[in-house]
């Protein structure tokens, strides 16, 4: 468990770039380097994270920790990966951000956004090479990217995943699995874990009741739990839900400040809850941040635990593997769309920005640089450009 915590804590210190980049970090570290799980199992976890509500990359990290060391391993992975960004956003909410308007800090944020373009592009390219080897998978990937960019809402994304799964069943299902089985033999697997699903439902009903509570902590738990339970697609998608509830208490300007800071720190975007929770419950900001953060992550983890055992069993079925192959191809398209908007759209404003991204990507691939070198290089370049205007 301590080994899981340390590995994820070190990743949490440098995991800039959002969910798309986090998937790339996890694949590189836990599949390629440590061999904690193979690519098939990793792809299954990626697909599962796309079809249940909650923070996708954090759910993958939790599942990897669970695979390695059980429930405590999952908790260790979550705490380790989330702790750096939680701490930074809490400190910023507590008032140690008097330099937010400084030119050097704005330059630093811009430099980190340029680094995010490099990391996300590398993640998209890596997953494309892994999941889009067949023509039908490439078509699904491109269609997913185009539809996502044109439609731009969560229902369109869900429809893409459902259609991709159906096409995958008929066009991408392997003819045989390991050992020559066609996946239709006498395979047994555990059904949905009812206790976790029941806990999820009980807390969801409790959150509905607490929405009208006079106690601020009860309202915080209710608002953030509902947001985590209803959102598909990660951090950016959760913003409208939180803005409609929490944003009314702290003001839109402060809300958007928290959002910008959440993009500038490493780790999951959902730790925006730490900033917002501290702002809403200003009497005891640390408690407010803890309640909000736990509430927004909890529903996704409970649903993951509910589905994990049946998901692993289904992975032995040929047609189910085909559905997952279709979903994975569509996910690559979703990540490609995310690379275009908001990652590139919010980072590259000039020819100089484009050159810095291309140079960074070439150095990253040519010399297989550690992510820390990218963080340092783009931070220094960003600060320099910020100071000289």
TrEMBL record:
Short name of any one Pfam family annotated for the protein: Chromate_transp
UniProt-annotated location(s): Cell membrane
Ranges annotated as spanning the membrane: 69-95, 107-128, 135-152, 158-177, 189-211, 223-242, 254-275, 287-311, 323-341, 347-364, 371-388
Membrane topology: Multi-pass membrane protein
Coiled coil: none
UniProt KW keywords: Cell membrane, Membrane, Transmembrane, Transmembrane helix
Database matches in InterPro entries: Chr_Tranpt_l_chain, Chromate_transpt
Family that this chain belongs to: Belongs to the chromate ion transporter (CHR) (TC 2.A.51) family.
Protein name as it appears in the record: Chromate efflux pump
Source species of the chain: Shewanella colwelliana (Alteromonas colwelliana)
């Amino acid at each position: 468990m301590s080994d899981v915590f340390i590995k994820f804590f070190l990743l949490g210190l440098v995991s800039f770039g959002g969910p798309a980049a986090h998937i790339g970090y996890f694949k590189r570290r836990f599949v390629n380097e440590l061999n904690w799980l193979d690519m098939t199992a990793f792809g299954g976890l990626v697909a599962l994270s796309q079809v249940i509500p909650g923070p996708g990359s954090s759910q993958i990290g939790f599942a990897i920790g669970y695979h390695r060391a059980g429930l405590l391993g999952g908790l260790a992975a979550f705490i380790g990966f989330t702790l750096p960004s939680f701490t930074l956003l809490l400190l910023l909410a507590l008032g140690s951000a008097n330099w937010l308007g400084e030119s050097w800090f704005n330059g630093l944020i811009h430099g980190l956004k340029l680094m995010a373009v490099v990391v996300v592009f590398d993640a998209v390219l890596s997953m494309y090479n892994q999941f889009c080897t067949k023509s039908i998978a490439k078509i699904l990937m491109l269609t997913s990217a185009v539809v996502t960019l044109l439609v731009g809402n969560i229902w369109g994304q869900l429809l893409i995943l459902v259609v991709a799964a159906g096409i995958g069943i008929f066009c991408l299902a392997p003819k045989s699995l390991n050992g020559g089985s066609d996946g239709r033999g006498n395979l047994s697997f555990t059904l949905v874990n009812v206790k976790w699903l029941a806990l999820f439902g009980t807390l969801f009903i409790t959150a509905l009741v607490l929405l009208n509570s006079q106690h601020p902590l009860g309202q915080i738990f209710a608002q953030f739990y509902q947001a985590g339970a209803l959102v598909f697609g990660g951090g950016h998608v959760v913003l409208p839900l939180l803005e409609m509830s929490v944003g009314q208490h702290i003001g839109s300007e402060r809300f958007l400040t928290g959002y910008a800071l959440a993009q500038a720190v490493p780790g999951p975007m959902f730790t925006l809850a730490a900033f917002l929770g501290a702002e809403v419950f200003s009497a005891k900001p640390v408690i407010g941040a803890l309640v909000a953060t736990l509430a927004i992550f909890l529903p996704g983890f409970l649903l993951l635990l509910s589905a994990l055992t049946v998901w692993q069993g289904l992975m032995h079925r040929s047609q189910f593997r085909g559905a997952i192959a279709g979903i994975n191809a569509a996910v690559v398209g979703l990540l490609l769309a995310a690379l275009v908007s908001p990652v590139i759209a919010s980072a590259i404003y000039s020819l100089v920005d484009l050159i810095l991204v291309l140079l960074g990507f070439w150095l990253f691939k040519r010399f297989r640089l550690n992510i820390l070198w990218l963080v340092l290089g783009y931070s220094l370049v960003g600060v320099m450009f910020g100071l000289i205007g």
